[in-house]
Predict the structure of Elongation factor P.
Amino acid sequence: MATTSDIRNGLCIKYNHDIYKIIEFLHVKPGKGPAFVRTKLKSVTTGKVIDNTFSAGHKIEDVRVETHKFQYLYAEGDTYHFMNTEDYNQITLEKSTLDAPGLLKEGVVVTVIINSEDQMPLSVEMPTSVILEVTATEPGVKGNTATNATKPATVETGAEIMVPLFINEGDKIKIETEKGTYKERIKE
């Protein structure tokens, strides 16, 4: 058993007869009343995100997990195929267990969290950022530069990202996977 002081991003817990992964948390100590922890929990079975508040010192049941590095191979409909980089065993995961399937490029190494009790994959942690090539976007018009103006761009995986006006087709850009947002243009 763990307590609210053990809460951290990525921790898997049993809550309401399901397994949830903590994706966001905030310890709050109001001036009046007891402290509490405000959390965002993502169900590893359904992908649904819920908000929950735990009072300070509340006992939570954590789930023992192992992490393994897997390389993304290919997608087949809503099924994604991965290969363990240590023993070369392959697993298939449903699209719902992935946080950002639109940013997965073949060959990317991800961390798969596996339940130690029954060896079932719980979730996939993407690298913090990925570098992808822009395949389609409208050309930027010179002089049309209001502060922080953006336009939609399609990257090589098919995902659509909002990018600054100076990005053109063929540019490689770094994308933050957690939010799916543009970070910077990569010069080669």
About this structure: The chain has three domains: 4-55, 65-127, 130-185. The chain is about 0% helix and 55% strand. Residues 11 and 165 are 38 Å apart (CA to CA). The mean pLDDT is 85.
